[in-house]
## 1
Amino acid sequence: MAQNILTVRGLKKYFPVGKKGLYVRAIDGIDFELKKGEVLGLVGESGSGKSTTAYTVMGIHSPTAGSIYFNQRDISMPSSKRPLELKKDMQIVFQDPGTSLNIKREIGKILELPLKVHNMAPKAQIRDRIIELLEMVDLPADYMYKYPSTLGGGERQLVAIARALATDPSLLVLDEPTSALDVSVQAKIINTLMRLQSNFGFSYLFITHDLSLMRNISHRIAIMYLGKIMEIAPTVEFFQSPVHPYTQMLISSIPVVSKEEEKLKPKRIKPQGEIPSPVNIPEGCRFNTRCPHAFEDCYRDEPEMKEISPEHFARCHLCS
Ligand code: SF4
């Protein structure tokens, strides 16, 4: 069995709001592992805490509590305190390449910077390496002389991916890498990411609100709701045998492309209400305000994560 490249234990990230001791509990105690060469989809609605998880794993936010291990090494500190050689092994691709790239820099210069900072190539070979990085994402070599402002959103995201690859990382955190792009270019970005993953064996923590996208590209899926993981399972089992009412609600509302998928789809569960504020998380099960199956215990006791079958876990009083 593949070793874990990333291990997250009891991770919390709270943000203070106002002066009354209130906190946004963006991440409220999560545990998960990412294996070497695995694609793990971390899926949730807006406000679920999935992007905060990405930023905390990357050290952009420091954890309020809990631990993050990269290859068994504790990295539960802000990025500024992480060793440089370790930082180069973990890279992030942000949602919006328009803001993550410096539009005043030539693309060659954008790609050169991480190569120099991390001593990735002798000076004489930097140009060749820049060309190689562009080719890895199917962009022509002469793009090194262009500026991001002259490119479309899809090509800018390819440059952002090339920049992430410059340090030869083994783990990529992909924070909604296609959600700011036109539908017409989303498939190209996904295909490029999956080709790179298959060719180089990268591990991806893939953050998205798009559950249907994960069906075809992830090995396992974790569903986040109000700062907690509610269900995590291998992808096939996740879609064939979802046990958490929230997962069932999400799966029942996504389009299917085949009769087989239609047969497996849970009966349509009408979403109830909105996701509550992460400042006022409901007592007991945090999904109780929207759950069609909520009963007395759900308003009093927070359910523990239970193992349903090997690698399949869910957090619900009805799960056993
Ligand atoms: Fe619904 Fe109760 Fe399960 Fe929460 S614990 S998902 S409220 S049945």
## 2
Amino acid sequence: MSTPLTAKQEQALHLLQTVFGYPAFRSQQAQIVDHVVNGGDALVLMPTGGGKSLCYQIPALIRQGVGIVVSPLIALMQDQVDALAEVGVRAAFLNSTQSFEEAMRIERLMRAGELDLVYIAPERLMTQRCLELLSVTPLALFAIDEAHCVSQWGHDFRPEYIKLSVLHERFPDVPRIALTATADQQTRDEIIHRLQLENALQFVSSFDRPNIRYQIVEKANGKKQLLDFIQAQHSGDAGIVYCLSRKKVEEMAEFLNENGITALPYHAGMEQSERYRNQARFLREDGIVMTATIAFGMGIDKPDVRFVAHLDLPKSIEGYYQETGRAGRDGATANAWMAYGLQDVVQQRRMIDESEANEAYKRILGAKLDAMLGLCETLNCRRVHILDYFGQQSEACGNCDTCLSPPISFDGSVAAQKILSTIYRVDQRFAAGHVIDVIRGIDTDRVKQWRHDQLSTYGIGSDKSEAEWRALLRQMIALGLVAVDYENFSSLKLTEDSRAVLRGEAKVQLRQYKKAEKAVKHKRQSAKDFAEANLDDLEQKIFERLRWWRVETAKAHNTAAFIIFHDSTLREIAKAKPRTLEDLRGVTGVGAKKLESYGEELVGLIAEFL
Ligand code: ADP
Ligand code: ZN
């Protein structure tokens, strides 16, 4: 038997249902809300799409005063505030994009306690003016979003975040809730330490995102492979393609557009106005592919991103997981796809080597990269590997490439010896391309010039293709059996560990090379298919009509379509075919305010079909 709810818990559930239109709390939301409503501090670790926002939005509605949300994402504040306005929550933001008059107006409302939530960028918050404003504002709570930004070792470090401990010192009685999707222990400890959250209750949710399928493929021709992947599995879907350099971002956008896929570039080197414009289009229009550097995406909560593709190797599993986590926030099936090759390993190692960082920092970067390489080369379930990295045990998932078509491992000791002894015989002075030419017995000019066709290892590996040798060499570099000397033309070197393999004292287990397969068409799983699979003909017609209505409505409100209703809500309406407002009230995602704004219109629309 469950214990009866307290009055405040009743109130929280009631707000969830009537304001947000959701029938029940997810995972730990109820406990978190309850804790913060009662004035406790909290540290919330939840994967992207897990539902962090409600954890502070509902307490802010219940507690007296204004909830202050610290967020580094100025570009998204407008959408966040719009979305809240749609459900009837009094929200606003303070940031550098608004006029002085507008800021004055918001400040006045804050002092009067006439707002539920105010989003503020950390640099703004730390100004004397803002701190004074807060001291005369009735405060419900502080929510510190993207709290991992305090971590100096992390990939999103924001120096202003470190100063946020001031909030605790100045306003000791106001509860604080820090939220992040980055969960490794080091980041967690840093958040607690830097924000003085030693007494906060920690809420760690499962980090699994079961609807995301992980795939890491051998890179042959990355561009072409990406195009095949999108055409076969994601035509018409929204997605994000991550590339390392600005130049590559531009090239990829162009390439995709030439091939009939609407793609927009995004990187830090672009004009700010153009970046914002592209981001806004990505959020508001259906089916746009964003090609971007990792500058793009933090806080992007577009729910229907159907795939995230990586054409370059991320620097860490944290980065990879955060980036791929932007797919499938609506819970429908999504793909995380990556093409990875020898060049990626070499490039990332070189970037660390050549960076200005001190040795200690380089060691951390190196360890993070090694963990990422471990994920790429694993013979086991990708998800098990990722979750294990975040300290969570799990079983093989059945929804990643290694589960779906298990790689074959083989005793690669002999192949490894061929590589190592060739590296040794060319005096550790040549890069991968030449070493592989020698192994395969190709008589290039350079081979002849150095008389490497006289070596005993010349041609001992003519049975394998160049791509195969590259794949083997890549694994050996990832395993630390071969080193790359970036200061000397990327020549290959032996390492401490390679000697034992050369002498036959240690065995090497390698992953058998799999030729890049053409993506198969039948595995389509786009949002549209997902909907189609669940709706009958009439329902599908209604759904399409509703989507069309949503486009018009979003345009009229100058907002994003998903702020009006998610696909999942439209789908549910199409299935339920409500005849009355009362029927419509029961649909997930339809709260009181939206019922009032759109109810009549929707019931009228449905009536045309019945
Ligand atoms: P996060 O900030 O953790 O990435 P969000 O707060 O943006 O996630 O929530 C992700 C999605 O899940 C949003 O579309 C949100 O409306 C939805 N959601 C959150 N909580 C619930 C719930 N209890 N029931 C149904 N949908 C929910
Ligand atoms: Zn798996």
